[in-house]
Amino acid sequence: MNITYSDNATPLEYEEMEGLLLTHITTRSELDRWEMDNINRAYKWVDQLKHRNILNENFICLLHKKMFSDVWKWAGQFRKTNKNIGIDWVKINVELKLLCDDANAWVEFNTYTPDEFTARFHHRLVFVHPFSNGNGRHAR
User: Fold this and answer.
1) Where are the domains of the chain?
2) What is the separation, in whole angstroms, between the first and last Cα of the chain?
3) Is the pTM value of this prediction over 0.85?
4) pLDDT tens digits, residue range 29-81?
């Protein structure tokens, strides 16, 4: 596949590229389209959720899987390499647990306005960068 990365994109390792489920994809624009179709299905799934217990590692991984599992074998699984952004990959579990614990406390104690809560949570989730690809879209 011929992929050109923009300056703000995180390049995938060869092993991660081998996780592409759709072997007919040859360009970045085709990949983007298939990922967007998968993400749109995930939006519908989220809208139908009955529970709102979402500030935990299990839900974060499940959401990523729903967003990308039709395209990538490793969807919903933490990355196993370091990237040009994010923490060291071996610290992902710990930092994600800390983020979720903090976020649950922010909710319980009404620490921030909804806008500030959202901005802080998004920033830290992208900073952790738990997945090989799709972190920004997932965090939004």
Assistant:
1) 14-139
2) 27
3) yes
4) 999 999 999 999 999 999 999 988 999 999 999 999 999 999 999 999 999 99
Homologous superfamily in CATH for domain 14-139? Fido-like domain (1.10.3290.10)
Q: Within 10 Å of residue 125's Cβ, how many Cβ atoms?
A: 21
**75 close to 50: Cβ distance less than 8 angstroms:** no
* CB neighbourhood size of 63 (10 A): 17
pLDDT tier for residue 3 given thresholds of 50, 70 and 90: low
Cα atoms found within 13 Å of the Cα of residue 75, Cβ hemisphere only:
20
Which residue in this structure is represented by tokens 């972190």? 135
Instruction: Provide the b/e sequence for 65-102 (b: ≥16 CB within 10 Å).
Output: bbbbbbbbebbbebbeeebeebbebeebeebbeebbee
Supply the pLDDT for residue 53: 92
